[in-house]
Design brief:
Elements (H helix, E strand, L loop, with lengths): L3 H10 L5 H5 L3 H29 L5 H26 L11 H34 L5 H26 L13 H4 L8 H24 L1 H6 L5 H11 L2 H18 L5 H4 L1 H18 L4 H15 L8 E3 L6 E3 L15 E3 L7 H7 L7 E6 L39 E6 L1
Antiparallel strand pairs: 1-2, 1-3, 4-5
Subcellular location: Membrane
Protein name: Rhodopsin domain-containing protein
Main location: membrane
Length: 412
């Protein structure tokens, strides 16, 4: 925001500017960067919805919040286009007429509110996402406290932006109201200090939500490679922290820079922080889609047409492999969803046939001479041996077994 006195000074200097300076316009480059980030973020959210709806058939509060954040991102890009059309974005302020600058400031007013709400929605979405995995009331209450704090912090920031000129909200873009004394607004110094304080809180919450998922993911029932991958993807939020720090440094000098709209550095980094947050929060949810695509590619390029199926929990993170796979099988989550497997035995079926409850197990299925691994037993009569003396805890009635199958179960 530029005070009227500075704007008048810039107007007086404008006629002396060289022709090349007058024709410079950086709005095309700025819009290209913002458009690319927006496209990547929105596409990621759409893929997330595809996985949740069509593959996992489960939508949570974090998904709805992320959709709202994506809508905010689209609104931010619309504001950037409006600012460019007004003639302020990417132009030297000295060459922008007062009327055009007022229109530019009007767009920037709504822009500031939308992106601030969007960043908070991303963090609240991550908090709801983590609450589904944490165990223990202390951790869950802590996350709920973070959600309450973020809501209150967002309302506070919005109030500062909207009412920094008191009840004359239109004074945020109508500078004549300030000049004739009809509105009294925060000075540039006060407004900058408030912004830096809010940005400091924003950096702290960025760091918190970038590191908080790591201990949660580490406790998931998944193999080490899966855990490391998820931790890396979720830690992309650290890049959002870096963007937030750079944005805060730019913010400290933005209102003193007479040429601040040409590069628009503060809002550039602010939007980068927003988009990286969306990407970091949404990429882990795409794991089932990546596995399905990579699995299809492997089947297409492999001579062996049989591929072990994968079972995912309702969030698409914890998973197990088909029992026909000779590799180790991790502990199952409460519910798994099957993708692309024709030959597999449900873990709960094996547990039901055992005489004692097993904390976790691996299984090896040995089939007949034709190397078929298809098990055809009635659901009520799965016979499982837990020792080496071939004593079965249950046996099916006559006529229900169509193939002799041996299942070896061992605890781990």
């Amino acid at each position: 925001m530029v005070i009227p006195e500075l704007l008048q000074l810039l107007e007086r200097q404008a006629p002396a500017a060289p022709v090349q300076y007058q024709n410079e316009n950086n709005s095309g480059a700025l819009l290209a960067v913002h458009g690319a980030f927006c496209g990547a973020a929105v596409l990621t959210v759409l893929l997330r919805l595809y996985v949740r709806i069509f593959m996992l058939k489960s939508l949570g509060a974090d998904d709805y919040l992320m959709v709202a954040a994506a809508i905010c991102e689209i609104g931010v890009v619309i504001c950037f286009v409006g600012e460019s059309k007004a003639g302020g974005l990417g132009r030297h302020p000295a060459l922008v007429s007062p009327d055009d600058f007022a229109l530019f400031s009007h767009w920037r007013f709504f822009h500031s509110i939308i992106i601030m709400v969007g960043i908070s929605l991303v963090k609240i979405s991550i908090a709801f996402f983590l609450r589904r995995f944490v165990q223990g009331q202390v951790y869950r209450r802590f996350l709920m406290g973070c959600i309450v704090f973020l809501v209150a912090f967002t309302i506070s920031c919005a109030g500062t932006l909207i009412f920094n000129c008191g009840t004359r909200v239109d004074a945020n873009w109508n500078f004549a109201l300030r000049a004739n004394g009809q509105a009294k607004c925060f000075s540039n110094t006060t407004f900058t200090n408030i912004g830096i304080f809010n940005s400091s809180i924003n950096i702290a919450t960025d760091v918190l939500f970038a590191l908080l998922p790591i201990p949660v993911v580490w406790k998931l029932q998944a193999n080490l490679r899966t855990k490391l991958t998820l931790c890396f993807v979720l830690s992309l939020g650290m890049f959002a922290c870096v963007s937030s720090i750079i944005k805060t440094v730019k913010q400290a000098h933005a209102l003193q820079d007479p040429d601040w709209t040409y590069h628009d550095s503060f809002f550039m980094w602010n939007n980068i922080e927003f988009n990286i947050g969306i990407l970091a929060a949404s990429l882990p949810a795409l794991r089932p889609l990546f596995v399905k695509i990579l699995g299809g590619t492997a089947r297409f390029t492999s001579n062996n047409s049989r591929s072990p199926g994968h079972y995912y929990d309702a969030d698409g993170l914890a998973y197990g492999k088909s029992k026909t796979d000779k590799r180790s099988v991790r502990k199952p989550a409460s519910q798994y969803y099957k993708f692309g497997s024709r030959q597999s035995t449900e873990l709960e079926d094996l547990r039901r046939g055992a005489g004692t409850k097993l904390g976790g197990f691996t299984s090896t299925v040995t089939a007949g001479d034709d190397n078929s691994d298809k098990i055809m037993l009635e659901d009520e009569f799965h016979a499982v041996s837990t020792d080496t003396d071939n004593q079965w805890t249950a046996s099916p009635p006559n006529g229900t077994i169509t193939k002799t199958t041996t299942v070896r179960v061992s605890e781990f």
